[in-house]
Give the backbone structure.
Amino acid sequence: MSRILGPVFRLLTAIVAVAVIYGLFGAPSLFSQQPDQIFEGLVTQCACSGSDGQAATSGDRTMPPCASACANAGPRYVLADSTYKVNFQFDKQDYPKLFAGKYVFVIGTLDRESGTIHVHNVVPDVPPQIRRAKSVAIVCDACPRGMAKARKAALEELSVWKRYTVVPDPKRADLIFLFSANRYLGDYLTRDSPDLRPVHVAITYMNVVDPRTGENLWGDSERLGSWMVSTATKDLIDELREILEVDQNPAERHAFLERHRIFKTATDVGK
């Protein structure tokens, strides 16, 4: 019996040891990989300094110096991080080119020697106006049938969040949270009546609108309609919350990273 139990005991011991190692460090294939990080800043262009050592210019503005030599390469897009006073390079230029002049979150891994981010995704940050706002009005536009649930679901989610005061009059609000089954056309202030386009409740759209200009400040959508409108509404508000709290709440930072780790085509949410 001891001859049988001895090898079995050693096998069990080995299995437990391997499980402990995996639990502490992850699989060996992942041990040497860099984890994804979130970088924040302004997508701008950099250029080499001139031969006289003066910073290069573009039009009427001075361009920040590139992090490494860029002779004969021309201006390149970089992520200017104002907090740490550093410019990160991108390993590819197609993603950042789409967001030139905008504040963004970049998800990827950093090559510390070259200061280059290996980009997995670029996600727009919200404009300062959304961060400064104190009050919102909930407007459900083109909301027949199941879409009418959006207003109640939004109110419930904002009551839990407690960041904004909900006011009934859009004209007195800092922001409008506009929900609809139709894509926003940027015409909240210019049209004579609520959206009268035909409605097929298959997609729930959320747009954060400037009540004074009608400008779309942020928006996204979920392909959930009908009896799933409440879920979609809360998901969209949670997505905005992740963006606003990515620097303050570790749980929201993790959720943001998981949601946006892999690049996805931007949703058409209107202008």
Remarks:
- The helical segments are 2-25, 28-31, 94-98, 128-132, 149-161, 229-245, 250-260.
- Residues 2-25 form the longest helix (24 residues).
- The chain has two domains: 37-125, 129-245.
